[in-house]
Structures are given as C-alpha cells and as structure tokens.
# Entry
Amino acid sequence: MEKMKASVVHEPGDVRYEDVDKPAIGPEEALIKVTYTGICGGDVKVYTGHMGNTYPRIPGHEFEGILVDYNTTCKMRAERGDKVTAQIYYSCNTCDLCATGRDNICFGLKVLGNHIDGSFAQYVKVPAKKVFKVDDDLKTGWGALTEPLAVGVHAVNTGGVKFGDSVLVIGGGIIGITVAIAAKLHGAAKIIISELNENRIALARGMGFAVIHAGKEDVLEKVLKMTDGKGVDSVYEVTATDEGFKLMTEAVRRGGIIVEIGLSLQMVPIRARAFTTKEIQVRGIRIHSQVAFEEALYMIQSGQADEYLEKFITHIFDLKDIKEAYNFQLNNLDHFKILLKVN
# Structure
C-alpha cells in the first residue's frame, strides 16, 4: 500500500513523525492533500492523554488542502484540484438527528483526530458531502480557520444573539475569540471577554473587544456595572472550570441564555437555584452544524472577519517538527493559533 508521512501519537507524550498507510477512500468519501492544519486544544489533549481516545492516533481536524479524489453519487461543491476545507466528522446519515440537520450530535459520530485519524498527515479522508471549496486567492492557511470559527458561529446561533445584545465570553482562547467575532458579526452591541492570559488579553483588546482581567479584577462586579446591574443577554462558557460555571449563572440576566462550550471530563459544581430564580435557559453545543460551517467560511471569504483573522496565526511549524510544536503550544503563553505546514 502507498505510504505517506504523518504525526502519530502512539501513547500520551509519545508522538512520532513517520510513514503510515495513505488513506484509501470508500463510498461517499473524499481524499484531501493537506497543506496547512491547525493545532487545536483537543489535539493537545490527544497528545497529553486527556481526550479519552484510543491509540495510536493521528490528531488534527482544522485544515485546508487540495481535493485529490472523491467517490460519491452526490453533487460535490468542489472539483479535483480545488483548494478546499471540510467539516471534521462522520455521521450515520440515517438517524432522525442526521435527517433534521443535527448530524453533529449523531449517535454514530466519529470525529477526525479523536475517534479516527485526522489531518496531521499528508493526506486525510473525509465524508464527500462535507467538503467545501475555498477561494484560490484566500490567504495561506486561512481555510484552516474555518473550523474554529464555525464553533463560534454555532455557539452564537445556539444562543440566539441578535442586534443590540450584550454578551459575556468566559475564556479568551481561540474558541472564545471566535465566539466574540461571531457575536460581533451577528450585531451584538456589547461583547465582554473574561480572561487570565496577558497575551490573549492584549490580542482581544487589539480586536476591539472589552476584556476583564480575571486575575486582577472582579469579573462579576464589572459585568454588572457595564450592564446597569442587569447582567448580559447571553453567556458563553468556554473554560469548563469551577470559576466559569459559578460566574455564568451570576452574570447572565434574568431570562437570559447560557451556552456551554468548554470540554471537561470532570464533575463541576453549578448554582442550580439560579436556573429557576432567574429562569435561565442553558444550552450546550457540540462541534458545529453544516449551516454554521458554511456561514463561517462565508465570513472568512467575504472579508467580514479580516480585521480579526489578521491577528490569529502567530506561529507556523513544519509537520515534521510536531514534538517541538506541541511543546511550544504547551509551554509558551505568547502565541495564539499555531499552524502546521504539511505538503
């Protein structure tokens, strides 16, 4: 069988750049030659052993590349040789969830880089129907930003952000910032981010967002002051920490909406009384819908998100230097999105 180079995590802490079998596509699948792929927090958890997946595993799910081949009876959105990106999961396509456009929570869901091999490789195979053409003149690597932005868009759609709303984002990492961007482009008038990391705080403020330093300021006090004591219309909790869960119920207004985004395998305490006292709606999201993915790609290709995305990519490593890239992501606080150059 034909071989390719890939970054393979054999067990927590053991990642190797090595030869593996090149994927062979089956029915309703497409093969993409990866050019750039982003390192997500989930990819780091695969490397450190905190994602609950099996090994060996090729991580990666944020990518752009060239469509090499496909095998499908459906009409494709791209042709062989086109620059593309793709949604990151397989679903069964037959259950009631898939039938109603909620295939992101399908019982048979398999996510690239977690349940099945992903994009930290020269080639990755994906469902053919989840491939999207990327404009040839889009800036290098920006197609790989579609996936994280789609998470933000899906969160904001789930939270029902409308023109004039106030929003609190707890956590100013990649996903927190994409939530803020999506909220801004949906018309939110007041967007507040709570964050500890000085570099992220500076970046978010440079994008024009109001940021509260959670290590130096009383976040709840400031949020209430900025909303005339009412609290925000919706809260987006990205940290999955005890502090985040405590803050989200206190900072949201009566009748407001909380959207939980953060991933954690731990049990966390929640002030349940606030749900009834304030009649709060609590919603969760998993990955993103196809609608959100298409909307995110449109935001990127139309130029709406340019002023934000210009600041996103701070470092690029070669795939062969994957261990160095992982260690940098884990130990260096002065970065934002890290890309891997593949082919």
